Amino acid sequence: MSPWFNPARELDALIRRVAAGLPALGPAFDPQVRPATDARHGDYQANGILAAAKAAKANPRALATDLLSALQAEGTLAKAGLEVEVAGPGFLNFRLTPAALHAWIQAFPDADAWRRGAAALHAGRKVVIDYPSPNTAKQMHVGHLRPIVIGEAVARLLEFCGASLTRDNHIGDWGTNFGILILAIRLKGFVLDAASPTALEDLEALYKEGSALTKADPAALDAARAELARLQSGDAESLALWERIVAVSNAACQRIYDQFGLRSDVVLGESFYRDKVDQVYRELQACGLAEESDGALVVWHDEVPRYSRHAETKLPFIVRKKDGSSNYASTDLATVLYRAEVLGAQEVVYVTDGRQQDHFQQLFLTAEKWFKATGRTLPRLRHVWFGTILGEDGKAIKTKSGDPVRLQSLIDEATAKALEKVNEKSGDLPEAERRDVIAPRLGVAALRYADLVSNRTMDYRFSWDKMLAFEGNTAPYLLYQAVRVRSVFRNAGVAAGQGEAGATPPETPGEIALARKLLGFTAALDEASEDLRPHILCTYLHELAGAYSSFYADNKVLVDDPAVRARRLALCARTSALLESGLRLLGIEPLERM
RNA sequence: GAGGGGGUAGCUCAGCCGGAUUAGAGCAGCGGUUUUCUAAACCGCCGGUCGCGGGUUCGAGUCCCGCCCCCCUCGCCA
């Protein structure tokens, strides 16, 4: 038989199958197969026997022994190279033999093989992912870092695990702020030159002025509303201006995306749905979900106390404002429908910050009832949210003047700091390579990795020193480790993947530990994709790099013994490929040398 | 008030679908390792009443209840 790509999953299925035939366990038995909590216990453990024994009032060790006998009689375990034993109060421990580790390493040598193995997780499922979805007419700032970085990592993870993915950049290009902006442009007689390098900054400044004006002067506020109404009613002149604003804004965003290696499959902003919200209003009212409240069209969810019409603090889902205009609830509902019916989404993933949780809960509840009432099939809707970036002082990050930190200046600073480090440590590399290749990649990688390494629901403290450190769980450390592995092949004079003929199974503790860690990738993928949490992949890669370093410290690769050399070269090749594939999954492009 | 997140080593954080008599990692501190493949590394030591109090269980950092502290959100912005 060919080796199992993901032994934990196969083991789980096998145990269920065998247990189904045992009267004491039966088909409902959940074996609770997990990676072993302690390497001394083997590679995988089944915890479920204890709970089953309790339910059946049976002796757990006896039950475990019965299950073990049945498993051994079945025969698959031995073929898969899994040793099994009853341990402790009634656990089953499974350990892959060196031969099985070796077989896996031979059978799954590169990213393509891993991708094929992982594809079972989503199996062609049609997923639409919504990120980074910025608002237009503003420069990108630090607040856009997380949706870009997390969104891209989650997208790549889904794609790697077999999803048929559509990246939909749902830009905010139709909101209230356009009234203010257009008003300010008209009052100032500003002529928007898309070619001007300061076009976007000028718009931002104008918006600030306009915003101040409307706050100070009710007449100006009315004028801004009138501008918005004019735009939304299709006034040609307003539309032309709006189009130019959006174009300038998108071009600026694209310059940032390019530096992050981001691309979108479709860009369907809020404006795209402007002729699709009427259907939403109609249908929601027709099926009795939406009603008028204070002049607005709202949806209550009485079964959820917080969104109930009886709540102390009313929090209805406002789908149409009292002035008749749409808001993001309206367009988001229209967007769900479009994604389901036109894009064929079976699942929609929204990557936004955690402050929008109420909105998405209400959106999902509303969509669920609306789709049900109209006989449609609702895609699975998931809100993948994240916490805030804090400054070194522990408060939301800002510049000294209180303005948001521009994303471009973060990239520039990261690149400059990375260049400093590289100049200091690798002055022998060509200057152009340091400046044009290594520094920008290292800088952006540091920025990204710091954003991914902690659980996304946590706030995190922004620290240049930590993200750019070459020690610890950081991008520089991982990139450096990846580069070290590559150097082995330079010295050996062979390409990764070559020189493996005659390789024997891992033998030394360092080889075995590294081989087991390589297989651990499948479990890490499982866990990371379950809740779409990239930090699990970060933790794994850091552990892999550590296992490699330990291996490398006391297992010389380029030795004379051909079998030893071959198997160590194979381990290096897999480590190299896996570190680099893992980094790419996170959106980080590895380096050849640094 | 309601809801969400957080409270684990000096610092930054994993672990939280309950699991195996010693709760992990990184950083910081201390001490080692190199005539040998990138030492930007590796190895070891030091360091924790897992916010507090109850409860469930063979077993709780992990589940339940109560309480305390910090952050975020709460009617027409997204």
Write a short abstract of this structure.
This protein has 21 helices and 13 strands. It is an alpha/beta fold and 594 residues long.
Task: Describe this structure as you would to a colleague.
This protein has 594 residues and is of the alpha/beta class. The protein folds into three domains: 7-96, Arginyl tRNA synthetase N-terminal domain (Gyrase A, domain 2); 143-386, HUPs (Rossmann fold), CATH 3.40.50.620; 410-594, Isoleucyl-tRNA Synthetase, Domain 1. 53% of the residues lie in helices and 10% in strands. It contains 21 helices and 13 strands. It has a four-stranded antiparallel beta sheet with strand order 1-2-4-3. A four-stranded parallel beta sheet has the order 6-5-10-11, sandwiched between helices. It starts with 6 loop residues before the first helix and ends in a 9-residue tail after the last helix. The model has no long low-confidence stretch (mean pLDDT 93). The structure holds one RNA strand of 78 nucleotides.
